[in-house]
Amino acid sequence: MTQNPPEFKPPKLPTSLSSCARVFAVTSGKGGVGKSTTCVNLAVALARIGLRVGLLDADVHGPSVPTLMGLSGRPVTDGEKKMLPMENHGVRCQSMGFLLPPGRASTWRGPMVSGALTTMINDTRWGDVEVLMVDMPPGTGDAQISISQKLPLTGAVVVSTPQALASEVASRGIDMYERIRTPVLGVIENMAYYEEKDGTRAYVFGKGGARATAEARGVEFLGEVPLDGDIRARSDEGAPIVVADADGDVARIYRSIAQRLIDMTKPFERS
């Protein structure tokens, strides 16, 4: 196993998240694999099984949570100038997409990105959330390390598509989290297959690459999510498939993975 940097020490839970019992980072080595859609559906699935859930959109340069969760506008502040998270589908959300004018790009570099993440974590009135889902930016750079220095991560969930390139990049993502002493809870293979009307499966992007990566790196394979046009359509509408088709096969897959994350982890110990 890769040696971890001896100087790295997991941070304490911020005061703003004092009631939080678990923090899950949903990550990918590259963009375009459906990481944000996966994170949002897992967050909503956790809320649907009865947990109080927060969702932090840490992708400062490409925030997707406002669209995926059907939210817009700016957060309201309370008497102590803390931002109240915007909420939909039972999930409390914070995103740079709420803080920038519509259509405005974030051109910040490392220190400003780190500062923005600190603000969203510490200056948001998260309340009594039990689970915080973090939609990480793609890649293995400053933002990922910055989050690991600001939040005690229960573990990381790596999202990949089946093709060899995506799986290779996912392996590098697993390596990064091992280096910063964050357990990798498992790999989700997104866009795993397309199911034809007759029930046969077409493996549009190849077959089993993410599963093979999980096996090679010794981490759990959490499941396959199909390539389904309804997931895209409902995401664009701000109605995650877990809500829009709650009894469907895809929603059941997300709920199963969400429950598995809870079953395989322990809540933070309180001093």
Automatic annotation (TrEMBL):
Q: Which GO terms describe its molecular function?
A: 4 iron, 4 sulfur cluster binding; ATP binding; ATP-dependent FeS chaperone activity; metal ion binding
- Look up keyword Cytoplasm and say if it applies: no
- Which Gene3D superfamilies does the entry mention? P-loop containing nucleotide triphosphate hydrolases
Gene Ontology terms, cellular component aspect? mitochondrion
Give GO terms for biological process: iron-sulfur cluster assembly; mitochondrial respiratory chain complex I assembly
Q: Record's InterPro entries? A: Mrp/NBP35_ATP-bd, NUBPL-like, P-loop_NTPase, YlxH/NBP35
Report the protein name in the record: ATPase-like, ParA/MinD
